[in-house]
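User: Here's a structure from my thesis project, written as structure tokens. My advisor, Dr. K., wants to see whether a designed sequence matches the one we expressed. Can you design one independently, without my sequence as a hint?
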């Protein structure tokens, strides 16, 4: 440490040299910046706490208003209100149970198929409120999934001949070259038609 003297010429002990003082000053500035950032974060946190408290107060106020409105209700009216709330909670239970049971039947326990059926059902069964609607929507979903599966397999195996006669060629005992159409085609190509000797 360097030897430093004060204004009176007395020896000052524990004095820092200029480099150490500069380093200490930089640390103090960094600490001040950190302290400022910490205060900003604490103020943001306090704002969030106040916001949360406002929501809690609003919920409490709404609950209090509800209690004030229902304070003069008779026991019968309160019982009916509680019963209605229970019904609303349990209203979707039979629908969900029906959907899950029928979904299990259609999928046969196959989880991948079940997921595919559910994804189609979410679109088709949005407004399904009755057992019949649920089953119809799940049946439609099953048809769509089956169609996707059949399209993704080998196209040769999924050919469906139409009722109009088009489709797979039918095997006949008549040789094409022996028919009139075959003979005309051969003549147009410049080939001679020979009848094989038996």
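Assistant: Designed independently from the structure alone:
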């Amino acid at each position: 440490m360097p030897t430093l003297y004060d204004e009176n010429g007395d020896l000052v002990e524990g004095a820092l040299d200029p480099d150490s003082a500069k380093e200490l000053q930089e640390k103090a500035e960094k600490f001040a910046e950190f302290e400022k950032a910490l205060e900003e974060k604490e103020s943001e946190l306090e704002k969030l706490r106040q916001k949360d408290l406002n929501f809690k107060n609003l919920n409490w106020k709404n609950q209090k208003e509800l209690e004030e409105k229902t304070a003069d209700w008779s026991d019968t009216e309160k019982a009916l209100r509680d019963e209605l709330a229970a019904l609303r909670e349990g209203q979707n239970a039979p629908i969900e149970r029906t959907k899950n049971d029928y979904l299990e039947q259609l999928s046969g326990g196959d989880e991948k198929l079940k997921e595919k059926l559910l994804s189609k059902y979410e679109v088709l069964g949005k407004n399904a409120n009755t057992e019949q609607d649920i089953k119809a929507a799940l049946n439609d979903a099953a048809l769509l999934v089956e169609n996707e599966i059949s399209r993704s397999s080998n196209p040769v195996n999924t050919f469906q001949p139409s009722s109009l006669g088009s489709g797979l060629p039918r095997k006949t005992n008549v040789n094409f070259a022996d028919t009139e159409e075959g003979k005309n085609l051969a003549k147009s190509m410049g080939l001679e038609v020979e009848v094989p000797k038996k």
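When you compare it with your expressed construct, this may help: Helices lie at 18-70, 75-90, 92-107, 111-124, 131-152, 180-188.
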